[in-house]
Amino acid sequence: MSDRNATEDRPPPGGKRGPSRRAFLTHSLAAGAGLAGAAALPALVAAPPIAPTEAPPPETVKSTLLVNGQARTLDLDVRTSLLDALRDRIGLTGPKKGCNQGACGACTVLVDGQRALSCLTFAAMYEGRAVTTIEGLANGDQLHPVQRAFVEQDGFQCGFCTPGQIVSAVGLLTEQPNVSDADIAELMSGNLCRCAAYPGIHAAVRDARGQA
Ligand code: FES
Ligand code: FES
């Protein structure tokens, strides 16, 4: 035996012997064999992909609306707004889609004579209710008095907001036939006009008082 081996087998000072270098190497080799064995295990089987949840088919309901005096029965996706039903299903494009979020008033219609923002309400809610759009105001060739007042007072420029302004004015004058000058601006403030034709719009509403 060499001097080196003799040194390894000699007990340490104090007499307590730790694991010998030989024992350490033996354990290390055994651990390495274990890892090699683990590498030889069959690969884990991948979990099958989770199928995406399919959206349920849209729920539809049959609704009959009384639009400008005519009964219109529609199969409606319950999510259809009154504005989309009027424009895309019935073909009445007078109500305009300005903001589609209740901020501009371009989509104003009357429901049972009261002003409503058609972009904010579901059409299916109006079963059996009377809906009036700008197309329903004139009597044949005869303009509604509020329409005539808008023409006479130049209550528009580009005209985009005009159907909503006129329908809103009809609703206001039905609620308050003698609305004061001071209240007109306030009570028409839900209808925006990008052309700022407000002086003409307000003059038209003043002129039409008592005629809606
Ligand atoms: S489109 Fe309805 S409020 Fe603007
Ligand atoms: S007339 Fe142009 S937005 Fe009112």
Gist?
The protein is an alpha+beta fold and 212 residues long. The protein has helices spanning 3-9, 21-39, 82-90, 145-152, 162-175, 181-187, 198-208, and strands spanning 60-67, 70-77, 108-111, 114-117, 130-132.
Question: What is the secondary structure topology, with strand pairs?
Answer:
Elements: H1 3-9, H2 21-39, E1 60-67, E2 70-77, H3 82-90, E3 108-111, E4 114-117, E5 130-132, H4 145-152, H5 162-175, H6 181-187, H7 198-208
Parallel strand pairs: 1-5
Antiparallel strand pairs: 1-2, 3-4, 3-5
The protein binds FE2/S2 (inorganic) cluster (2 copies).
Explain what you see.
This protein is 35% helix and 13% strand. It is built from seven helices and five strands, in the order H-H-E-E-H-E-E-E-H-H-H-H. The longest helix has 19 residues, at 21-39. The chain folds into two domains: 59-135, Roll (Ubiquitin-like (UB roll)); 137-212, [2Fe-2S]-binding domain (DNA polymerase, domain 1, Orthogonal Bundle), CATH 1.10.150.120. The chain is of the alpha+beta class and 212 residues long. A five-stranded mixed beta sheet has the order 2-1-5-3-4, sandwiched between helices. The structure holds FE2/S2 (inorganic) cluster (FES) (2 copies). Residues 97-100, 102-107, 117, 119 line the site of one FE2/S2 (inorganic) cluster (FES). The site of one FE2/S2 (inorganic) cluster (FES) has 12 residues, from loops.
